[in-house]
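Problem 12. The chain below contains 425 residues. Write out its predicted structure in C-alpha cell notation.
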Amino acid sequence: MLRRDLIKSTIATGLATAFPGRAAASGMTAPGPASASDISNDRSFWLEQMHRVAHPVLSALSQRRLRTTMPVEKSREGAGNRGLTTHLEAFARTLAGIAPWLENGGLEHGPATANERELRTGYLEIVRQAIAAGVDPKSPDYLQFGATSQTLVDAGFFSLAVLRAPQQLNAKLDSTVRAQLADALRATRPLQAHANNWLLFAAGIEAALFALGQPWERTRVDYALREHMQWYVGDGAYGDGPHFHWDYYNSFVIQPFLLAILESVGNQEEAWKAMIPAVNARASRYAHILERLIAPDGSYPVIGRSIPYRGGAFQLLADVALRHALPEDIAPEQVRCALSAVLHRTLEPPGTFDKAGWLQIGLAGHQPNLGEGYISTGSLYLCSTAFLPLGLPPEDRFWSAQDASWSAQKLWRGDDMISDHAIDI
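Solution.
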C-alpha cells in the first residue's frame, strides 16, 4: 500500500508541476469547453489530457480493482456480455495509445522535461503492475482472454501496444509476466476473425508473439496482409473487407495495424517485405486526407460507425506524425495544432467524463445514442491513440516549432494553396 501511495503521489506531483494551473486534471474533473483564444497546443496540455483519460484505468487495474470500480455503460441494444470484456477493451486501448510515450517520452535532459520524466516513471510502475494483474489467471482482474470474440479485438490492441514499446512493454517485463502475457494472447487463437479488419487483430497477436520470442503462426499474418492488399480501393484507402465503408476504420484499425505488423515481421517473408513501400505510401496519403478533414474549429465529419471513439479517428495521422512520415506539404506543427483542436472538441465538453473520471459514450459530451451495440465504456478508450506523438521528444519539431494553421484553417481564411490530388499506388 505504501508503494502504491508513493506512485500516486509521484504522478500527482509531476502533473501539478508540469502544468501549473491545471492541477485539477489530476482529480479527474472535466473543465468547461475552451474558447478559441484559450486553446493550447503545447505538450503539457496533451499530457494533462492523456492523464485524465488513462489514469483511472491504469490505477484501478494496478490495484486489481478495475472490475469493481469501472462502470459499464452501453447502449440499450448492447450485448449482454460487455461486462465480461469491457475491462480488457479499456486497458488494451489505453495502452496502445500511450505506449510510445512510455517507451520514449520525456527522456531528454533538462529542467523542461524533468517533471515529465518523473511522471513517466510513475506511469511505468503502475502500467507494469496493471499488466501483471491483467494477465495473471488467478487475479480478480484477469482480463478474460479468449472468453468471447471481442477479446480477439482487444488482445490485438494489447499486441499493438507491445509492438509500439518493445523495451518497456516487452523486454523489461518480469519473465513470469511475459510468459503469462504470451499465454493470454494464445488463448484467443480459437476465436474466429471476421473477413474484415478483424484479420489484422489475429495477425497483430502473432506479430506480438514473435516480438516476445514465442512460436508464432505465419499463416495468420500472411492471410491478413494478402487480403488487405486485395481490399485496397485506391487513393490511400482500404475496404473493410471486400467493400469500402465511409467511416474511420482505416484509422481506427486498418492502417495502424498494417504499419506495426510490417514493421515487426515484414522482413520475415519476401512477399511481405515487398508490400512495405506501398503500405507506407498509402498511409502517408490517408494521413494527408485526415489532416484535411479537421475543420478550422477542430470538428470533423461525423460519418460511419464507432464515432464515440472520439480522437481515435485520427490515430493514423498521429501514427504517421510519430514516424516522421508526413507528406512534404504537411508540417508537423500544423498536425500538432490540428490534433490539439480535436482533443479540445472531443475531451473538454461537459459530460465527457462521469463524476468519477470515467469516459462516457459520446463525441462532444455524453451522447449515449451514438453507441452501437458493441460499444461500452471500455471501447471508448481508443481515443488514447490520438496521443501517439507524445512518443516524440520535446525537442522534436512536432513539439518545438511555433503554432501553425492546418489546411482547413488556411483555406477557409482565403490562403492560396496547391490543390489536392489522389495517388494511384
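Discussion. The domain at 2-412 is CATH 1.50.10 (Glycosyltransferase). Students who got a different answer should revisit the alignment rule from Section 12.3.
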